[in-house]
Design goal:
CATH architecture: 2-Layer Sandwich
InterPro entries: 4Fe4S_Fe-S-bd (IPR017896), 4Fe4S_Fe_S_CS (IPR017900), RnfB_subfamily (IPR050294)
Helix content: 25-40%
Structural class: alpha+beta
Number of helices: 3
Number of strands: 4
Protein name: Ferredoxin family protein
Distance between the termini: 23 Å
Organism: Zhongshania aquimaris
Keywords: 4Fe-4S, Iron, Iron-sulfur, Metal-binding
Bound molecules: iron/sulfur cluster
Strand order of the largest sheet: 1-4
Radius of gyration: 11 Å
Largest sheet: 2 strands, antiparallel
Pfam families: Fer4_7
Order of helices and strands: EHEEHEH
Strand content: 5-15%
């Protein structure tokens, strides 16, 4: 399982600050942060701790299995970003 960030993310980095495994990108010190429309969770490293969901001020992050239908495509968007950033 993994957590997923959905498109109404406001890039305030509250989730980045609390993630124990640093699997939310781009972080403020990484390439692409200033131009990113949203942040993304790498499903390979997410340990499902829920810290990001608790920290997010606008409920823009949630467990993949609880994504409402209109947000389900964001699971693939988060995963694809995570693969692309390591190439
Ligand atoms: S659930 Fe935990 S490990 Fe996964 S992205 Fe959120 S804070 Fe990081
Ligand atoms: S805490 Fe929420 S709004 Fe802020 S960067 Fe993370 S997912 Fe986006």
């Amino acid at each position: 399982m993994t957590y997923v960030i959905v498109g109404n993310c406001i890039n305030d980095t509250a989730c980045v600050d609390v993630c124990p495994v640093d699997c939310i990108h781009p972080a403020p010190n990484e390439i692409g942060f200033k131009t990113a429309d949203m942040l993304f969770i790498d499903p390979k490293f997410c340990i499902d701790c829920n810290a990001c969901a608790e920290a997010c001020p606008i409920d823009a992050v949630m467990p993949a299995h609880k994504l409402p239908k209109h947000f389900r495509h964001y699971q693939a968007i988060n995963a694809e970003y995570s693969i692309a950033r390591l190439k």
